[in-house]
C-alpha cells in the first residue's frame, strides 16, 4: 500500500523545489518586490488598492501609516488592535530598510535619512522612474491615480514592476 503514496509525495516535493528555484531566478533579473505574504495584511490592506509590497517603504513610513489609519488619505481604514499589531509587525519586519532587497534599496536610495513618506509615489526615486509619463496618461480613466500601480504594471500583484 506504500506504492501509490510514495510517488505522490516525491512529485509534490519536486514541484515545491522547482517553484522555489523559478521564483529565485526571476527575482534576480526583474524588478521584484515580494508581494504581501501575511494574510491579515493582504485582507486588510488589499481591499481598496493593491496591498503594497512592504519593501517599497521604510519601516518608519509603515509605523506612521499604521498610527493614523482612521485618517488614511481621506478614508477610514481602521482595523482592530490585534490586526493592527500583526500588520505593523509584518510591514516593519519586511520594510525596504530591513529586508536588504536589492531593488527596494534602489527605490529608497534617494530618500533623506530618517524620512518617513506616507506614499510610495512620493519617493524621489519613484518620481524619477515615472517622470516621462505624461499628464494625459495619469488622467486616463483606466489609471486615474498614481497609486493604481496595476493599471500599468500587469505583474504588480505578483511583485513585478518592470514595464511589461
Ligand atoms: C478603505 C479603503 C482603504 C483601505 C482598507 C486601505 N487603504 Fe491605503 N489608501 C486608500 C486610499 C483612498 C489611498 C489614496 C489612493 C490614491 O491616492 O489614489 C490609499 C493610499 C495608500 C498608500 C499610498 C499609495 C501611494 O500613493 O504611494 C499606502 C502606502 C497605503 N494606502 C497603505 C495601506 C495599508 C498599509 C493599509 C492596511 C492597513 C491600507 N492602505 C488600507 C484607501 C485604503
Ligand atoms: C501610468 C502608468 C503607471 C502607473 C500607474 C505606475 N507605473 Fe510604475 N512605471 C511605469 C512605466 C512606464 C515605467 C518604466 C519607466 C522607464 O523604464 O523609463 C515604470 C517604472 C516603475 C519602476 C521601476 C522599474 C524599472 O524598470 O526600473 C517601479 C519600481 C515602479 N514603476 C513601481 C510602481 C508602483 C509601486 C506604482 C504604484 C504605486 C506604479 N509604478 C504606478 C508606469 C506606471
Automatic annotation (TrEMBL):
Pfam families: DHC. Keywords: Heme, Iron, Metal-binding, Signal. The lineage of its organism: Bacteria, Pseudomonadati, Pseudomonadota, Betaproteobacteria, Rhodocyclales. InterPro entries: Cyt_c-like_dom, Dihaem_cytochrome-c, Multihaem_cyt_sf. Residues 24-131 form the Cytochrome c domain. This is Cytochrome C. The keyword Calcium does not apply. GO terms for molecular function: electron transfer activity; heme binding; metal ion binding. Residues 1-27 form the signal peptide. It comes from Parazoarcus communis.
Amino acid at each position: 500500500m506504500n506504492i501509490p503514496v510514495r510517488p505522490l509525495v516525491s512529485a509534490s516535493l519536486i514541484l515545491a523545489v522547482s517553484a522555489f528555484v523559478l521564483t529565485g531566478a526571476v527575482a534576480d533579473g526583474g524588478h521584484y518586490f515580494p508581494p504581501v505574504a501575511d494574510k491579515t495584511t493582504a485582507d486588510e490592506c488589499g481591499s481598496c488598492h493593491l496591498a503594497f509590497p512592504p519593501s517599497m517603504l521604510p519601516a518608519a513610513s509603515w509605523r506612521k501609516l499604521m498610527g493614523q489609519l482612521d485618517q488614511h488619505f481621506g478614508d477610514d481604514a481602521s482595523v482592530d488592535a490585534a490586526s493592527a499589531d500583526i500588520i505593523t509587525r509584518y510591514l516593519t519586519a519586511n520594510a525596504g530598510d530591513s529586508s536588504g532587497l536589492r531593488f527596494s534599496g534602489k527605490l529608497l536610495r534617494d530618500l533623506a535619512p530618517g524620512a518617513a513618506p506616507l506614499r510610495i509615489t512620493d519617493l524621489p526615486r519613484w518620481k524619477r522612474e515615472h517622470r516621462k509619463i505624461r499628464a494625459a496618461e495619469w488622467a486616463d480613466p483606466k489609471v486615474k491615480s498614481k497609486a493604481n500601480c496595476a493599471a500599468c504594471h500587469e505583474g504588480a500583484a505578483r511583485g513585478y514592476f518592470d514595464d511589461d
